[in-house]
Automatic annotation (TrEMBL):
Location of the region described as Disordered in the Swiss-Prot/TrEMBL record: 53-108
Keywords assigned: Cholesterol biosynthesis, Cholesterol metabolism, Cytoplasm, DNA-binding, Endoplasmic reticulum, Lipid biosynthesis, Lipid metabolism, Membrane, Nucleus, Oxidoreductase, Phosphoprotein, Receptor, Steroid biosynthesis, Steroid metabolism, Sterol biosynthesis, Sterol metabolism, Transmembrane, Transmembrane helix
Protein name: Delta(14)-sterol reductase LBR
GO CC terms in record: endoplasmic reticulum membrane; nuclear inner membrane
Compartments where located: Cytoplasm; Endoplasmic reticulum membrane; Nucleus inner membrane
Pfam families: ERG4_ERG24, LBR_tudor
Comp. bias intervals (Basic residues): 76-95
GO biological process, one term: cholesterol biosynthetic process
Keyword Chaperone: no
Record field: compositional bias (Low complexity): 66-75
UniProt key word DNA-binding: yes
GN (gene name): Lbr
Entry membrane topology: Multi-pass membrane protein
Amino acid sequence: MPNRRFADGEVVMGRWPGSVLYYEVQVTGYNDVTHLYTVKYKDGTELELKESDIRSQSSFKHRKSQSSSSSPSRRSASRSRSRSPGRPAKGRRRSSSQSRERKDDKKKTIQETNLVLLVLFLFKLNENNTRRYNGEPDSTERNDTSCKTLEQKFKPDLEIERMLDQYSLHPRKEEKKKEEIYSEKKIFETVKTIEKPSPKTKELEFGGRIGTFAMIFFLPATVFYLLLMCKQDDPSLMNFPPPLPALESLWETRVFGVFLLWFFLQALFYLLPIGKVVEGLPLSNGRRLQYRINGFYAFVFTAAAIGALLYFQFELHYLYDHFMQFAVSAAAFSMGLSIYLYVRSLKTPEEDLAPGGNSGYLVYDFFIGHELNPRIGSFDLKYFCELRPGLIGWVVINLAMLLAEMKIHNQSMPSLSMILVNSFQLLYVVDALWNEEAVLTTMDITHDGFGFMLAFGDLVWVPFVYTLQAFYLVSHPTAISWPVASAITLLNCIGYYIFRSANSQKNKFRRNPADPKLAYLKYIPTATGKGLLVTGWWGFVRHPNYLGDIIMALAWSLPCGFNHILPYFYVIYFICLLIHREARDEHHCKKKYGLAWERYCQRVPYRIFPYIY
């Protein structure tokens, strides 16, 4: 194992990735596994560099002083002496050695000139960007207009360099080489091209290997506990544990077959050649994947199929009668899918692995997801499961609970509480499917791999926990007055407005920050070329979409009354989940944006709840 050469806190010269230029950096860490140094540049950017890309300041300054030791006057004098026809042979040999030294000097001068140009580029880019302020906690892509403008501004400087260079006598080969180095395209590609750090995941979430191993068992146990409690006459948390059913009653092959039929029916709708095809955000290798946007069409086709079943008097409350068995079937399917995903990821190229699920630990990578975008041909498994089987299934299950309430309590109309819960959550699902393209910019798609966490969450947690209020109301009907219903409806509308307008603002800016319609938005520029919004909803709190989510979750639970805390589990869970995501976003953005993120936090001090948190 090689010894470590540079210590933490030491100030050294680090090579800028993709170029031959060195900058002053500070060593902040060292990975004993990958043997990479974590260094921090003066603008706050943190990168991982190999030891061969780092030099001590003393050696760097020594080499630089050597390159500038000979003055221009001395070099010109030597050139005039070497050109004299009356010089002896000894003088000509000395002149050839001086010529070689001049070549070396010119090569080093070229590198120093590139350094000056790059510094000017970064300075002008920052100067142009700081005229507007842009803030948003999530990362947003900027277009290349500023780069093209600066490239045009640099062209006169480069032309001057070429004109001056014409008066220096040197071989044609050296001139061609210098021309290649001075090429504007290469200079700007050097600025844009950044070597990606090691894909190995170093910071583990959810308690690392032990925590994720426990979560694999804890999540299914939580779902089954909640469903069992909702069936009790007194679903108090004090009545623990609930009566456990016989194991053989939890599985029925017919129910599993119905679940498979539902899953593959949604897959069929996904493959239909309808809807537009769009590109996702660039991957680490610059490639963009294509996605077909037809989730709303799938919802319409599903609604037509359900309507046909009801027309032919199919009893949809079959879902309520076998709800626990459906949950077990979905959990078993998600486990099998997760195993398949992990096995196939072992043969996946490094560049296609998820940045957060490549730790090298089997259990952790299995839980988080090892492969970023697993596909079978053009069929994207993660993108499909994100919105189709679970989210559309959420609406179907809610409808089944509404019909079951009417049948069990002999009602000609569903209760007002049940209508509110169904309506609020139907709006949420339809909104997600109508704005399906926006999911392509979320962390689930761009950062998280597809493993047990997302597979179980999409196929089990969403359809069987998010329907908890409707499932609770079947066994525990709650009467509310029209004024109370109106107040709850107003609260849900407020939450939905915050959620939708904040997400729309973010997605529009991320897709095209130069859109004239977004000219009123101010942002903070960052060293990555991306921006952080500090006006609009994102200048109100750092995560306004989370605030809207929590307000809506509360409105979904209020129709269930206050007799038990069980219907509010979703609200408690959602607050904990969003606080975890917010903490993860804070850590990720601080590391990515450096000083710009600190400026953003000073401008927008509140994270989710204004004046509270």
